[in-house]
Amino acid sequence: MESSMLINQRISRIAAHLNPPNLQMEESSGLGRVFCRAKGAAPGFKVAILGAAGGIGQSLSLLMKINPLVSVLHLYDVVNVPGVTSDISHMDTSAVVRGFLGQAQLEDALTGMDLVIIPAGVPRKPGMTRDDLFNINAGIVKTLCEGIAKCCPRAIVNVISNPVNSTVPIAAEVFKKAGTYDPKRLLGVTMLDVVRANTFVAEVLGLDPRDVNVPVVGGHAGITILPLLSQVKPPCSFTQSEIEYLTNRIQNGGTEVVEAKAGAGSATLSMAYAAAKFGDACLRGLRGDASVVECAFVDSQVTELSFFASKVRLGRNGIDEIYSLGPLNDYERAGLEKVKKELEGSIQKGVSFIRK
Predict the structure, then answer these.
(1) Is 337 helix (H, G, I), strand (E, B) or coil?
(2) Most buried residue, 15, 28, 66, 201, by most Cβ within 10 Å?
(3) CA 99, 191, 241 angle in degrees (round to 5)?
């Protein structure tokens, strides 16, 4: 009899994981899939991905499910998230996956999160500039950040939605309005520029990209992306033609992918990789690891601009330290002036969107 009861309990537990398809269930049994937790799930951080069913979001969700620092993974989107959640939840890693569909479930998706990653928005298509994306993505980021301010104001927020040069200032203004703004906890993800720089420089030098580190400063669009090739590690030298080739290719890496996909999308896979790499760095900082240093677009006093991408040291409170640019050569100083001129307008565009 006791054996029969145990079998029935196990069947009930399995059934609760699989049914019903509604992700947010209100069952009195307490065995709803959303409340089930696999034994052995490692202690770790709670991460939400907003825009999890999109081109970046799906791959990013998969990569964060693999991350051993993640104990709970919340996937939110306005469409298609039940299928993505079901699919990813079958992976035999310790993070528990829960899905949240539509605006009505945004607050549930955000409550209690340690890290929120925002890839939500429309992708860039051939012929589109990042500014063409502004009106749609600005509204999306505004809505999501209002939810963050209400439900998890102490979370670290990683903004991927383009144009990052404008969406990060939008997020800051939303948090300021809500009285929750902490500049240490808001980071624009420019890691893809660094990933591309490491890859392209490694190709020129004949090295493994994992052994190369290129600081990329400024912003996250076109000429606002400034690789500091004079500060590459390991130390090396480039000819002027190599500097121009590399700088141009790093600045236009996104366009290279958009054109190669010929209308079928933008940089989703490499962006998801870069976002997962940066998200992991944030989690290692939260854990208390020493010397976690990455480039990010943040509230900054490195230049006269209010936001700027440079190296930051990550810690338990988000950003522990923002590093200066260090010594620049003539080419980089000239590039920096172009960056500041372009970036100033993009930042103001984001601020004005909320303050209007």
Answers:
(1) helix
(2) 201
(3) 150
118-146 pLDDT tens trace: 999 987 666 766 667 788 899 999 999 99
- Strand, coil or helix: what is 71? strand
Supply 48's token pair: 């939400």
Q: What is the pLDDT of residues 289-333, one digit of tens each?
A: 999 999 999 999 999 999 999 999 999 999 999 999 999 999 999
Q: Which two tokens stand for residue 134?
A: 């502004």
Which residue in this structure is represented by tokens 């383009």? 162
Burial per residue of 55-76, b for 16 or more beta-carbon CB atoms within 10 angstroms, e otherwise: bbbbbbbbbbbebebbbbbbbb
Determine if the peptide bond prior to 43 is cis (ω within 30°): no
CA distances from residue 283 to 11, 120, 135, 155, 242 in whole angstroms, order as listed: 36, 21, 31, 11, 36
Distance (Å, whole) CA 310 – CA 323: 7
Q: Which of 17, 74, 90, 220 is catalytic?
A: 220
